[in-house]
């Protein structure tokens, strides 16, 4: 029972006892006037009011206890669900990586043939599935992965910018932009892939294209495991 409600009920009970004592005293005495009769009636009305109020407060307390019990049950069920999810998640393989080309500041390319892009500046590599020496991500478990890459270029007046994405030896997509006007350009894309354990994903710079390299993470390669299968 809440302290405020408990104090209210106690106060009401004390008032009832006080009025009941007053009524008893009045009844023990012989009514001396019409005024004393009205006083007794007023006291009886007050007692009835107090009884009704105490009954109402008691009903409110019962309902509040029901609500408290229901809320406690809901909180207990939520805690059990969270504990279950924590245990389930603790046993899952965790995979996430993000890397950039890295310094020094420079224009990569153009090359006469398609060239693997190697992102040496690693920001995140949870699970160790990304190789910063080869630029290749290797799926450690079968599952659905999200792969994202970005590219940029600045100050070039003769070549376009672009990135090719591969899964194993399979060419998946090309992302490019006209970059020969000398203006700063940025490109980005992402895909969801179903990969088997051991599948590799990597990017390549198309022949005669350029990209900006540096430590500012304008040209990046990232990915993470959404869920295993």
From TrEMBL:
Signal peptide annotation: 1-24
Arranged from A to Z, the UniProt key words for this protein are: Secreted, Signal
| Entry-linked SMART domains | C1Q
Compartments where found: Secreted
SUPFAM superfamilies under this entry? TNF-like
Is Signal tagged as a keyword?
yes
Q: GO CC terms for this protein?
A: extracellular region
UniProt xrefs under Gene3D superfamilies: 2.60.120.40
Q: Where is this protein primarily located?
A: secreted
| InterPro entries listed in its UniProt record | C1q_dom, Cerebellin_Synaptic_Org, Tumour_necrosis_fac-like_dom
Start and end residues of each C1q domain: 90-229
Q: What is this protein called?
A: Complement C1q-like protein 4
